[in-house]
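Schema walk-through. Below, the input block comes first and the output block second. Nothing else is stored per chain. Lengths vary across the set, and this one has 290 residues.
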Amino acid sequence: MTIRPSPACLRLLPVLALVASAAAAQEAAPAAGHGETRAYWSDRWRGWHFYEDPPLEDPAPPRAQAAPAKPAQPVASPRPPELVEFERLQKTLEDLRNIAIMRPTESNVRRYMELEMQVVNRASYFADVAQRVAWATPELDPTLQGRPVNAQALEVFERQQRTDRSASVATLGRDHVLIFFYRSDCPYCHTFAPTLQAFEARHGIQVVAVSVDGGAMPGFPRSRPDNGIATALQVTQVPAVFLAQPATGKITPIGSGVLSESQLLERIAIVSSPTGEAMLPSATQHMALP
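--- output ---
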């Protein structure tokens, strides 16, 4: 008796053949090694519809970074041996002094005094050498720079200085005047007035006398009464002298009290120099003269 498969069985034959082929391929494939991931279709128990994340890739090993180059350390220049010796001597002297102060025994004081004498001798020798260098080098000799110390040279220096300052004051006298503030009852003003008269005659600069109290002053018949300029200039003590330039109204204080002729020359020369106003700019004022 011949058994014929039904049409439905015939339709299932290709599917069964595909399943059998996949099962045979699975059995023939070698087992996955340790650490290897098997495909989901190679495991029967997972089923055809099992879902899982793809395997993670091994992270790449970190690249070695080059160490930053260290900046080159500046090479310290060797210190002069003289400085090293000086610091050592200075430290030793200070230590011996402190020890002698805290424990003033004969031996401690003696050690300090002996080292101190050595230091004094070194300083004295240095002073002798410096003096010889100054004698051989005029531009380094302090006795030839500025005011001399020798009596005869000092007399020549002061005479020349007076001549130069007198010429400078005479030049200033072309457009400057001296304002002399006084009071008629001030004995110092009466003492100072003849000096100003002689100064005006000798150096050719006009002196304008201003009376604070309205009284007269011998030797200045054309004195003017104060019109408020003394208050504006903050004159609190008489006698007082100011250097003024009428054309510009510039007024600079010279000083108060009784001054000598040499002091007047010196002070006028200083305040009228190019750097004089820069030394004390607040002292110079500008206002109309009486």
